[in-house]
Amino acid sequence: MKKKVFLPTLMFFLLPGFNSPAQSADPEHVINTDEKQVLDTVLSMTRAFENRDIEGVLSHYDHDAVIAFTPGTATSGAGEIREQFLQFFAINPAFDYGGHKVFVTDDTALHIAPWTMQGTAPDGIQINEKGLSVSVLKRMNGNVWRIIVDDPYGGLLAQ
C-alpha cells in the first residue's frame, strides 16, 4: 500500500540522477558562477538533510523563509520549520532529479527541479512521491545564497 506524504524541497536535490553539480537541464546552457553557487547551496542543503543534520539544513534557509511542506500551505517561523524537517528524517528518503534549472538576476535566483522520492514510513509502508521543486534564493552577506521560498509542489498548478 502506498502512503501519500508531502516533503519539503530539500528532498528533491539528491544526486543519483545528477551527473555534476554544475550541470543544467539544458545541455546547450553553460552554467555560470552564480548559477553554480545557487545549485551548490541547494545540493549542500540536501546532503545535510540526508545526514539528518538539522542545523546544516536550517543554515541554508533565511530566517524569514517560507516553505510549503504540504501543497498550498505556507510554513514559516524557525520553530515550526525545524519541527517539520525533523519529522521527515524518519522516512529515510532517497531522491532522484530529472535535471536542474537555475535563473539568476542580481541577488535573486530561481531554482527548478523535477524530483522523485522513495522512502519508508516508520510503520514500514513504502512511500513514492514525485513533484516539481520551485525555490527562490537570495544572495546575502556578499556571496552567501539562502533559500527564502521553497515549494516542492510547484507543478501542481499545471495539473
TrEMBL record:
Keywords: Signal. Residues 1-24 form the signal peptide. InterPro entries: NTF2-like_dom_sf, SnoaL-like. Gene3D superfamilies: 3.10.450.50. It comes from the Bacteria. Residues 45-127 form the SnoaL-like domain. This is SnoaL-like domain-containing protein. It comes from Thalassospira xianhensis MCCC 1A02616.
